[in-house]
Structures are given as structure tokens and as C-alpha cells.
Amino acid sequence: MSKIIIGLIVANVFVSMKGFNDVAFFDRYKFQVQRILGGEKIRMLTSGFLHVDWLHLGFNMYALYLFGKVVIVNFGTGPFLLIYFASLLAGSMYSLYQHKTEPYYSAVGASGAVSGVIFSSIMLYPQMELIMLPIPIPIPGYVFGIGYLLYSIYGMKNQTGNIGHSAHLGGAIGGYLITLILRPNIVANHTPMIAIMALIIAGLFFFGDKLRLNK
Fold it and tell me: What domain of life is recorded for the organism (predicted)?
């Protein structure tokens, strides 16, 4: 496994452990709308290394391990880090946009960054087969990717669970766009998948405000 992926996992584990045991540290670096709008922009980055518990941390790091190696083998270290951190920040920015009228909204987790890495790997290999428990049936990566976008939109609209759906969406969009920039021939190779995802993302940009109506 790449030393870069190991380094990111170690960083997430150590920062998250510090947050588990130090409430003041956790509060100082988590994503919180009021604090970010007040000038503490660093929270948009640091919140991506904090997690609420071991299950949350473990799920994100396992996904990073599985999909990260696909991206780093295809692109190399520099572009992989670009995708990871650009997706992290894209998730934070989209969350800030969606929750800008909720001063006490807060969130943590590497989900935005990991979503970007997952989408990048799916775009590289849309026919990859994924098994998502509890459904023990393999599904193609492109089906998962489109379903992931639609479910995140539904979750953001209806506030399902204690999940930062807006960060997932923002991160996925970041991974999608950076991958297209780095590997533009994907459009010709996988036109239908790219087009469907582009339509969903365009819909978010034009009608994203309506997702906040049910809050």
C-alpha cells in the first residue's frame, strides 16, 4: 500500500484519537458554520481529520484504503493528493453553502475527501463490481456512483440520519471534476455515465437552494 495512503490513515487516526479524548480540541477544529463565517477557515480542512467515533473513522479509512490505491496507481502521488484535498475542501464548501443560515451546524469526518476518491476510482473503472451490505449482490461502480449522488440528495433534502450528506455530495463533485481535468479522455470512453453524473451535478448547482426548504 502507498506510503501516502498510510500517512493519511495515520494522520486521521491520531487526530481523531486526540479529539476522542479532548473535547476542547474537538470543538476547536470541527466544522462549525458560525466559527467559519467568523474567520476560522482552517476548520474547513481540520474537520476532515476528526471523527465522532471508531466506527465512523474505521469506515472512512477502510474506504480510503480500498479506493485510494486505484486512484494513486492511475494518477500518481501528486494528483492523488490533489483529488483528496480538493474533495475535502469541496465537501466543506458545499456544506457551508447549504447550511450558511444555521450558525450552530457542525460536522466532522473525512467523508468529503473519501467521496472524491471513490468517485475518481469509479470514473476510472465504471464496470468495477461493488458489494454494499446488507445487499449481497455485486453492482457496477457506475450504478453505485449515480445511486450515491441521488441518495445523498434525498438525504440532504430530508435530513435522514446523523450524516453530513452535503459534504458527501461536495466531495463527490470535487472528485468528479478533478478527475475529468486530469483524464479528459474518460468523457469519450464512458460518455453515458459522465453525462448522467453531469446532469445531476448541474441540477444541484441550479436547484440546490430548494434542498433547504424542508429544514
Answer: Bacteria
Cβ partners under 8 Å of residue 146, min gap 6? 193, 196, 197, 200
Give all domains of the chain, ordered by start, each with its CATH number: 3-212 (1.20.1540.10)
- Work out the angle between the directed axes of helices 77-98 and 54-75 (0-180°, nearest 10): 130
Cα gap 24→177, rounded to integer Å:
36
Q: Three-state SS across 50-108?
A: CCCCHHHHHHHHHHHHHHHHHHHHHHCHHHHHHHHHHHHHHHHHHHHHHCCCCCCCEEC
Per-residue pLDDT of the chain (215 residues; tens, 9 = 90+): 689 999 999 999 999 999 999 999 999 999 999 999 999 999 999 999 999 889 889 988 988 998 899 999 999 999 999 999 999 999 999 889 888 888 988 889 898 999 899 889 888 888 787 776 566 778 777 777 777 667 666 666 665 444 566 788 889 889 999 999 999 998 888 888 888 888 877 776 666 555 554 44
User: What is the rounded distance in angstroms from the CA atom of residue 103 to the CA atom of residue 96?
Assistant: 10
**CA–CA distance, 161 with 107 (Å, rounded to integer):** 13
Q: Are 132 and 182 in contact, with CB atoms under 8 Å apart?
A: no
